[in-house]
Each structure stands twice: as structure tokens, then as C-alpha cells.
């Protein structure tokens, strides 16, 4: 009798329970499954429920016999829209609730490899002694990762915590960013007033990366090569797999045509019909992602700026974008005319399809990493208004390094919104379109057969398969 064939490698995947994190780790999962790996994906009850109601990714994944969701109960399910809430979740509630479950799965489920969200540093403790190698996947850019990684050094050099309030002061102790990084470009928790202990604890999370078996990043070499070479020196066996942009990679391998359907909110697709009525590159798409919240005053400033810019605009106003927004009276009366003439508002958009649309000429974005990559792949110039976390370094790179748009962080004034939108869509339109086009080409090449991200994904899959040998 032939011996029983060895079972396929079994990978446990554990994202931080937040839309951007779940979304990109689902994409990673979809890239790994066709290689015959078995995957268990940990997900909160609320996200699992939303995925099965609103998306096609749930059924796509479930069609693989080697795939299963494992639902985690008892997680905090409120908003995570401040550094305080995020920090508490990372260092307190998540480790408490999930560590026993992780140990049980790692010991009893014949896991070959554990791919944990690198923001969940405690995953290393949960896996200790189980013999299962842990790879960290970071959902952020390499530049933001490197800024987080260097924070303990900035504490040692006295750059942090800040003395004084001048946010324009240069930070010269982050290698590779000496020429352009300012205090205001550091991850937002550096200025959030966290207690000293919490600040130290959160600062040390990224420093745990060298203890993992490898690091996987959703980026590509042509975009972040110089920063990657700094990170590489601190990674075990210099082992970084840059396999992004993930959504473009899925398309390039014909695994999924549109991955925006991974989103955890109900999409309003009527905006595509509205875009169809507009001239090429004439519309400003506005979205602040799934977490950011605005005050009512900020909303009104943006609104005036958009209407005064006289560009048609498609704006995602999530149900919870502004806490005190009353539905009856949503459009401020003085802006009704301009909004009716040029604006289209939705609660949630099919963002990837919107950015692909020929009518979209620029993206006013909070520079969450997924949104930034989606804009880069489609060659859409950006107006940046980062809200928190990694978005601060991302937007600095958009303007100062990649030259893909302008950064208006820390201002929210109708005149500035109008001016910067006009700058990107009129005055310097050609310049930004040209650099966006160039970067989009490089992004697409990286995930095409023979490109750097394409080869790195193949290498990652082979390395995981070797783990069973
Ligand atoms: N997104 C979407 N429709 C919207 C707004 C956002 O599908 O109306 C998707 C977007 O395509 C991206 C994700 O939500 O993939 C947002 O992730 P990002 O990292 O940009 O920001 P976060 O939500 O984590 O702040």
C-alpha cells in the first residue's frame, strides 16, 4: 500500500480586529490558498457576520476545502479611533482574550506556520514553546514601519517625548528620513499624550519584529527600496517578503477581479453611474477610510472647501464619520446648491472600482495604507489629510518622497482645502499625473510574472512548504 501523502502545510492567520487589518490579511489569505495551503483565519464575531452579509470574499474563501474561519468571541467591538483605544486594545484586552485560544490552536491543530499581524507582538509569547514559527505581517507601509521601529531610538536620543510644541522641528535620527521628517510626520501616538508606561509599551511592539521568523509587507521594492534596506538589517536572516500591492497582486494572478468587495460595510454602487456622467480626470474622490472621525466643524470646513474648489466630488460620508450628524439635515443649507450641482454622497463606496474609473482625477484621502496603495496602483494623485497612526508618515512620503500629491496634515480650513485641491487638480495637474502614472506602472510590474513582489510571494509559499519537510 502507498504511504499516506503528507498533509498540506496548515497556516494560522491572525489579524488585528480592525477593517484595514482584516481586509489586507484576507487578501494575503487569498494569495496563499491557490498554492494548496490549508488556512485557519481568526476573526471577531462581528467582522465574520459582516463579511458573510456584505461580501463575496466569504464564499470565495469557503470554496477552498482547506480553509476555515475560526470565530473569536469576547473581543472589544467598539470603535478604535484614537491612539488611547488602540493602545489599550493592543497591550491589554486583545492579549488577555486571545492568548489561551492561540495556545490551544497552536498546540492542538497541527499548525505549520503562524502568520500574525505584527502589531500583535504578544503573538510571539503565545507561540513560545509550541515550536511553530511565527511570521509577522504588517499592514502598514515600510516607511511607517521604520518610523515605528525607530521610536525607542528617538526616546534614547531625547527627540521623544517632545519638548515644546513646534511640530515643524526636524527629526534627524531616523535613518533614511533625515532630510524631510518633521515631528508632525511621526506616527500620531508620539503626540497623543499617552501615559509614559503605555507609550513605552506601545513603542516596543514593533521592536519585537526581529524575534519573528520573517516579516511580510504589503509594499513593493520600487516604491520603498531605500527604507526596506534599513529594515532588512534588523530582520532575522534579512528575511522580508514584500508582496504588495496585494489587491493588484490578486488581480495579476487572476484570483480576484475586484477585492473592494472584502469591505465590511454595505457598498453603494450607484456612484459608478454618477461617475460615468463625468469627463475624464475631473472628479475628486473623498474618503477618510473606515475608522477616522471628523468633528462637525471639520466636516463643514471640508464641505465649503470642496464646493468652493468647483470640482465635481464624490464623498464617502460613513454613518459614523461625524458623531453629531443628523440625517434629516445632513447637507448644510448654505451648501445645498453646490452639493446638488457637483457633489455625490455615499455611505460607503466600492473604492477600488471608483479609483479605477476614468472620471476620477484625484483622491482626498486620510492615507490609510490600503487607500494609499489603491490610489498608487490606479495612478491617482492624492490630497492627503492623515487622521492618525501610520497615516502621518505615509502622507509625508506621498508629498516629499514619491511626489504623488500634497499633504495638508494638521490643517482643516476651507481656504486651504480649496487651494490644495486646485493645486493638485489644476495648477500642478500634469506634474502629479506624470509621477502617478510612472509609479502605477512600477506597481503593476512588481506583481506581474517576474516582478519583485511576484517572485517574493512564490518564495514565501515555497518557504512555508519547506516548513513541513
Ligand atoms: N474602502 C471602501 N469603501 C469606502 C472607503 C474605504 O471599500 O467607501 C476600503 C478601501 O478600499 C480600503 C479600506 O476600506 O481598502 C480602508 O483601508 P485603509 O487602510 O485605507 O484605512 P482604514 O480604514 O484602515 O483607516
Automatic annotation (TrEMBL):
The keyword Amino-acid biosynthesis appears for this protein: no
Stretches that traverse the bilayer: none
Pfam family, one: UDPGT
GO molecular function: quercetin 3-O-glucosyltransferase activity; quercetin 7-O-glucosyltransferase activity
Coiled-coil intervals: none
InterPro entries xref list: UDP_glucos_trans
Record key words, sorted: Transferase
SUPFAM superfamilies the UniProt entry points to: UDP-Glycosyltransferase/glycogen phosphorylase (SSF53756)
Family from the record: Belongs to the UDP-glycosyltransferase family.
The protein's name: Glycosyltransferase
Protein source organism: Lactuca virosa
